[in-house]
Amino acid sequence: MNPTPEQLMIGKRLRDFSASWIRNLRDTLQTLSTLPRNSYAYPLPSNFPFFDTSLQEKIHWIEVHGNTTRRYGFVVHFEYHLDTTNLWSPAVWIVRSSAMSILGRVEVDFRILSDTDSPVVIDEDFVLEMMLHSFLREQPMRFSSRVVPNINPVIYPGVIGNIEIFELRTFDGVLVLERGRRMVANRICSMCDQLLPPSGPNVCISHLLNT
Ligand SMILES: [Zn+2]
Fold first, then answer.
1. How far is the CA of 118 from the centre of ligand 1 (A)?
2. How many other β-carbons are positioned within 10 Å of the β-carbon of residue 99?
3. Residue 210 CA to ligand 1 centre (angstroms)
4. C-alpha of residue 106 to centroid of ligand 1, in Å
5. Where in the chain are the domains?
6. 53 C-alpha to center of ligand 1: Å?
7. 65 alpha carbon to ligand 1 midpoint, in Å?
8. Contact 15, 135 (CB under 8 A)
């Protein structure tokens, strides 16, 4: 069933208001950057972004159409969980409303979280930034890495190996931002020739999901 014009309007408003909530949180974190996480003024759960509670915000607004005025009120929930339904096990953050479905969704490749040498830190500000992109594009986002051969020895002279590129993409594969890159040793999928990051399963993601 297609959403009604009112449902589309509510979804858009909730994404807009949630985006300004997330922007405020980022601004507050920046202003209070020296504040201890257990301080009462800290705006997030002390173990954010890997938190086990639901972060909530009440959103109210009024729509005026001609002579009619309608009031809307929703609670928006920001939640984290580690997906264990498949071997790829991404870490997942969602923002959902009390009545509507998911407003924003961010997945992070678990290999990146478990890699202590990763050049990218999945901290509170980066999770909030990725969620903003999900609101803006009205699409779920996935942060992962891909490995490409080092074909430009001018940039990395004398280095043997591949380049791992860390990127945020939509689920359709559209690039949203690049966060970092590093040189990695050569490692390939045991079932095809795809290059792999230095740690994690010894097969590529498509073979991981289809075996
Ligand atoms: Zn493969």
1. 22
2. 12
3. 10
4. 24
5. 5-209
6. 37
7. 55
8. yes
Measure 113 CA to ligand 1 centroid, in angstroms.
Answer: 21
Look at residue 21 and tell me whether its pLDDT is greater than 60.
yes
Residue 206 CA to ligand 1 centre (angstroms): 6
Nearest partner of 15 among 73, 97, 128, judged by Cα: 97
Given pLDDT bands bounded at 50, 70 and 90, which one contains residue 146? very high
Q: According to the per-residue pLDDT averaged within each range, which of 71-80, 113-122, 191-200 is highest?
A: 71-80
Are the beta carbons of 7 and 100 closer than 8 angstroms? Answer: yes
Cα 139 to middle of ligand 1, angstroms: 27
What's the gap in Å between 123 CA and the centre of ligand 1?
30
More reliable by pLDDT, 153 or 185: 185
ipTM for this model: 0.98
143/7 Cα distance (integer angstroms): 29
Say what the pLDDT of residue 160 is: 65
Q: What pLDDT does 121 receive?
A: 93
Instruction: Quick: pLDDT tens for 61-82.
Output: 999 988 999 999 999 999 999 8
Q: Answer whether 194's CB lies under 8 Å from 148's CB.
A: no
Q: How many angstroms does the Cα of residue 76 sit away from the middle of ligand 1?
A: 39
> Distance of CA 142 to CAs 77, 109, 110, 147, 149, Å?
20, 7, 11, 16, 22
